[in-house]
Write a structure and sequence with these properties.
269 residues, alpha+beta, cell membrane, 2 domains, 4 helices, cytoskeleton, six-stranded antiparallel sheet, membrane, cytoplasm
Length: 269
């Protein structure tokens, strides 16, 4: 499945934003992911891009960090056996959305993750309970999820997120940071209408060819069956002869009574 999430805002007059695009399997395994974050500061910009992709049994991670005019590239790879259960920015968003939809967070959720230095660490998820949130002038209830990325001997990085019951991320903040991202307005709901598209199969050469082949196949099969059972023609001829001689008003009732003796058992009246 494809996951795409984007947030934009302004911190002290400096534009900033985050974008994540990921391809994730139904088992929540990351197949490929692009993560991009930036801050446009006065005098210089900070830009970081990270790309993850599975290749030949390895997870290859490449980062490009740009601070002003200075650019730093880094690349590492790990066997997938080491990263089994890996949670990235993309898969963590999907996981939190599933938690919001179910309104329940299992206890002791811990996963493999990567820290800022691309070293393996682990991430834990804990429930923060329910909270009233103001979104677009309405007060809605959201469930809180705390995500903690443990970085060895360094101080863990902690994010607190609140999500609505439909899975929308309504609030996100990093503990220790004065900045809180909030959902200003819910996206408009679009009504999905399924328009029936007429099938003009007569204009499709491939479909016409398949139809003709199937038609000839059925005709040959039916003709073969009739040759193997000549009694069918005699039976139908007798029925049509009786029908034309008697000319009944109710043809179905006449056919029922005519073929009733051939039935292995009597039909209920």
């Amino acid at each position: 499945m494809l996951l795409h999430a984007q947030s934009q805002g302004v911190i002290d007059g400096s534009p900033c934003g985050t974008t994540v695009t990921a391809y994730i399997s139904v088992e929540l395994e990351v197949l490929e992911e692009d993560y991009h974050e930036y801050v446009e500061l006065e005098g210089h910009n900070v830009d970081k891009k990270c790309h993850l992709v599975q290749r030949d049994g390895q997870m290859v991670i490449s980062t490009v960090t740009t601070v002003g005019q200075e650019e730093t590239e880094e690349s590492v790879s790990y066997p997938m056996s080491v990263l089994r259960g890996l949670v990235t920015e993309g898969s963590s968003l999907l996981m939190m959305r599933l938690i919001a939809l179910r309104q329940k967070l299992p206890k002791n959720m811990s996963f493999i993750s990567l820290d800022q230095r691309l070293q393996t660490s682990h991430t834990t998820f804990n429930e923060l309970g329910l909270k009233q949130l103001e979104v677009g002038g309405d007060v809605l209830e959201g469930i809180g999820v705390q995500r903690t990325v443990h970085c060895g001997e360094d101080t863990p990085a902690v994010w607190q997120c609140y999500l609505l019951d439909d899975g929308h991320l309504a609030s996100r903040m990093q503990v220790g940071s004065p900045v809180t991202m909030k959902l200003v307005q819910l996206p408009p709901k679009t009504e999905k209408s399924l328009e029936k598209i007429p099938l003009a199969w007569e204009e499709d050469l491939q479909m016409v060819s398949e139809f003709s082949d199937r038609k000839e196949e059925l005709k040959a099969d039916h003709a073969s069956y009739l040759r193997q059972h000549p009694e069918i023609r005699a039976l139908l001829s007798d029925f049509l002869l009786s029908l034309l001689l008697r000319k009944p008003d109710n043809v179905f009732q006449f056919a029922r009574e005519y073929f009733l003796p051939f039935a292995p058992r009597r039909f209920p009246e």
